[in-house]
Amino acid sequence: MENKHLYFNTSIGVKKPENYRNKEQACPFCAREELTDLIEVDGPIILLKNKYPVLENAYQTVLIETDDCHAELSTYSKEHLHRLIRFGLKHWLEMEESGGFKSVIFFKNHGPLSGGTLAHPHMQIIGLNDLDYKEKVEPEMFDGIVIAEENGVRFTLSTKPRVGFYEFNMEMPEFGYQERFAEYMQMAADYILHHFPFKATSYNIFFHHLDGKIYAKVVPRFITTPLYIGYGLPQVPNNLNWMADELKRIYF
Prior knowledge:
The protein has 252 residues and is an alpha+beta fold. It has two domains: 10-134, HIT family, subunit A; 138-251, HIT-like (HIT family, subunit A, 2-Layer Sandwich), CATH 3.30.428. The chain has helices at residues 10-13, 78-97, 179-194, 226-231, 240-251, and strands spanning 38-42, 45-49, 58-64, 103-110, 122-128, 144-150, 153-158, 168-173, 203-210, 213-220. Strands 1-2-3-5-4-9-10-8-7-6 form a ten-stranded antiparallel sheet. α2 (78-97) packs across α3 (179-194). The model has no long low-confidence stretch (mean pLDDT 96). Pfam families: DUF4931_C, DUF4931_N. InterPro entries: DUF4931, DUF4931_C, GalT_short, HIT-like_sf. It comes from Neobacillus rhizophilus.
């Protein structure tokens, strides 16, 4: 029978450091001289094997975004932003092209409700040996109200969100990095943390490679609605046009 689930190793999971709530926990990503299993270093950016590989049948890596523990994607200079996203996309796509995995996921957690355990800015690139994430992706989840579009790069607010409520999408052609892709992503993160109509402290970014395009979906995180948890029913709010206009007003 085909496997449909990721298996989590709890004996490793209980050893993972956590410093969103445990403020006494030292940040392991700040102790750069103690990091091991480095894959590539580009100045303040480091890709390394995950010291706590909690997912079975997977190859787990961590991308440390910066040496500033208190930074956040929305605060990065344009130079660092593009350096980081180019670096991450390069390694993600190389892992895909290696043919060693059924699929490769690339994502970011930020904030206490994001599902992450460490506050230091980082992403993860994980090769899945026997699961294809694309089987659970519907192209319509990237449909939405256009906020901005430039040189083949599009920034939208989902009208058919995957989980529900507000989801911001960026898309660009798979060949040739476009700076606006990362800049739209940065705008979405900034809007969630500083301009959102409800207090927001957390978000996720999920990257997708589908049908000749690279997508990023930026999702503000709150307590997940029980209608989605219990029944898989996404909800669509009635103020999407207002929010799209707000982003245009603030950033464009």
